[in-house]
Amino acid sequence: MRLFACAMVLVCWSVSCVAQYAPKAEVFGGFSYLNYEVLSTNLPNGSVTGTCSTSGNVTNCEFPPAPTVKFTPRMGLYGWNGSVTAVLTPWFGFTTDFSGNYSNASRSITTSLTTTSPSPCTLECTTTETIQLAVSDPTIYAFLFGPQFTFPAGKVKVYGRFLAGGEHKSVTELQTDITNGTLLSLSELATPVISGNYFAMAFGGGVDYPVRKKVSWRVGADYLTSTGTAQNHVRVVTGLVWRL
User: Fold this and answer.
1) pLDDT tens-digit map of 187-205
2) Is the peptide bond before 64 cis (omega within 30 degrees of 0)?
3) What is the pLDDT of residues 23-56, one digit of tens each?
């Protein structure tokens, strides 16, 4: 009975502490810069030479794996960022964060793979495949939520947070394949925009500098990672925080 009474006192004290801060919230709105790894892919580049072996009347030819070059274009995307934080205690809250970033920039790469067949060969002994890949016009939307921790440091408040949620990415991709000067394929559809939804996480923090009684100026940064072919991104935000 005494243990139950102590537990009830502790629960009531915890609820009263949370209730004291439950109505409080922080609303942030401002500018966002996103350094985004738009794509991460390997393209064939270099040369390979096949080898043949004969067993009876059957000749088998094999080619080693083609060497590759990694294409990881990064772009600077500009946009907006907003968040709402429910302040549960002076040092802990729960944040909902959303952002949109855009760019009309483009990045491209051209690679070439030369394949040599051993003699005697019935057709062309050497073929050269040229691949041109271009990406442009990325658009990124993110919706994240998770805990946020706040620590006073003199006049400013320092915060750190871990967020998880989703990301929507759309980017224009155009690839052409040319073999020995002849265009074999052109991956240009009526709408060559590749889009998809991915799981995303963000780790980061920043500082809030007071401007007025309930208004602060925020500067923060997040490291973002997401599923898909490109995963490493950095977002920088700045703007005003209203404490309600």
Assistant:
1) 544 457 788 899 999 999 9
2) no
3) 489 999 999 999 999 888 899 888 888 777 766 6
* pTM of structure: 0.78
CA-based torsion, 214, 218, 137, 195: positive or negative:
negative
Distance from C-alpha of 21 to C-alpha of 159, rounded to nearest angstrom: 17
Read off the pLDDT of residues 117-154 as tens digits, 9 standing for 90 and up.
776 666 667 888 888 889 999 999 999 999 999 998 88
Q: Count how many Cα atoms sit within 13 Å of the Cα of residue 15 in the half-sphere of its side chain.
A: 6
Each domain of the chain, given as residue ranges in start order, spans 25-45+62-243
Q: Does domain 25-45+62-243 have CATH number 2.40.160.20?
A: yes
